[in-house]
Amino acid sequence: MIHDGLKRLKLYAASVDDVLAGRVTDVYFVRSKEVLEREGISRQRVVADVHAYGLPPGYGWGMLTGVEEVAALLEGKEVDVYAMKEGEIFRIYEPVMEISGPYDAFGVYESALLGVLRQGSSVSTKAARMRMRCWGKPLIFFGIRCVHPAVSPAIDRAAYIGGCDAVSNVLGAEMIGESPVGTMPHALVILFGDQVKAWLAFDRSIPQDIPRIALCDTFLDEREEALLAAKALGARLHGVRLDTPSSRRGDMKKIVQEVRWLLNINGFSHVKIYVSGGLGEEELEELCGMADGFGVGTVIAFPPSIDLALDIVEVEGRPISKRGKLPSSKQVYRCDLFHDTIVPRRATLESCPRCGGRVDPLLRPLIERGEIVGDLPSAREARSYAMARLESLRALEPIDPEPLLIS
């Protein structure tokens, strides 16, 4: 239908106020609240925990992201919240968060809470897995064109915490306190109609503190354009980006090898090679030894889902849950060897049952009676914590796929 000016067009995005007011929720939570209020039992105190009872095939762990947003969602509500840290590694069955309080204080927020945690954790987990495949090499997130613009800053934050060194989104970078990073689009080269003219114009116009990285796959073979860029910009050229589409790609490893060889024999060994365009975990691992950095978008923006669920595990102090779940409030303990143990909250664990090592509780106070009492790190601090956890995993893998349950 042609827009005739009578219909007001809009972006279909919930406002922050809509989310905080509990309007982004499944209707059955609203109806449940009405039923419970009518029957006079809406104020029952419950304990609910957030957990994953399954992970995507091949995944032995997930990375928690979205804790800060949950804190913003539940601040001021009549609840207590325990949570793992932003960027923490978790396994199946482990509660990553526990919420307690009158059910009517948080029930309608279940949809929004899980949406924040599931999407954030799914993105950060995939970013972390990509990070593990190219450890020590720059990894930039280019994926906002894959998602609705209303949620792109949240996706950027999760990708950054999970292991990406930077994001390309201007607003997303601003909201996490970082600078956006990017090179140039094919559109710039095409509008000039000549790649050399485009590269030189970029060099003349863009501030000198921005690295000169030439996009080298628009009109000619990658190695030809890379050599053209090196000759045109000389010592000013920091690197070349190869964004070869899948329809023309062939063997990307061979392409990178040829580009590296040609640059080196012509005296341009200082020029870095960055690769982007449809890269997955296997491609990163294969190219990590020869490419200098990567741009990744779709596979991080649209990752396999980390299926976190929220379930009631206690009502008025009585352990109770649906079938297939573990009733009772819980705590998760971890030793330095990443042996995890789940125990009822009433119990304490002094040492690891597997190795005898010192253990630390992973669930810590975040909110008490609606007031935030836990630390809420910046995105950079959360990323540093996550990277330290990944560093431990690299040294220990393979790790136990499941925690030990002690009741």
How would you characterize the overall build of this protein?
There is one protein chain. This protein is elongated. The model has no long low-confidence stretch (mean pLDDT 94). The chain has two domains: 210 residues, Alpha-Beta Barrel (nicotinate phosphoribosyltransferase), CATH 3.20.140; 165 residues, Alpha-Beta Barrel (TIM Barrel), CATH 3.20.20.70. The protein has 407 residues and is of the alpha/beta class. Helix 5 crosses helix 6. The termini are far apart. Strand 14 and strand 15 form a beta hairpin. It has a seven-stranded antiparallel sheet with strand order 13-12-1-5-3-17-18. A six-stranded parallel sheet has the order 7-6-11-10-9-8.
Features:
nicotinate phosphoribosyltransferase; TIM Barrel; alpha/beta; six-stranded parallel beta sheet; 19 strands; seven-stranded antiparallel beta sheet
Topology of helices and strands:
Layout: H1 16-20, H2 27-39, E1 45-52, E2 62-63, H3 67-74, E3 80-83, E4 89-90, E5 97-102, H4 103-106, H5 110-133, E6 139-141, H6 152-162, E7 166-167, H7 170-175, H8 186-192, H9 195-205, E8 212-215, H10 222-233, E9 237-242, H11 252-265, E10 272-276, H12 281-287, E11 293-296, H13 298-301, E12 308-315, E13 318-319, E14 330-335, E15 340-344, E16 359-361, E17 364-368, E18 371-372, H14 379-396, E19 404-405
Helix pairs in contact: 3-5, 5-6, 6-14, 8-9, 9-10, 10-11
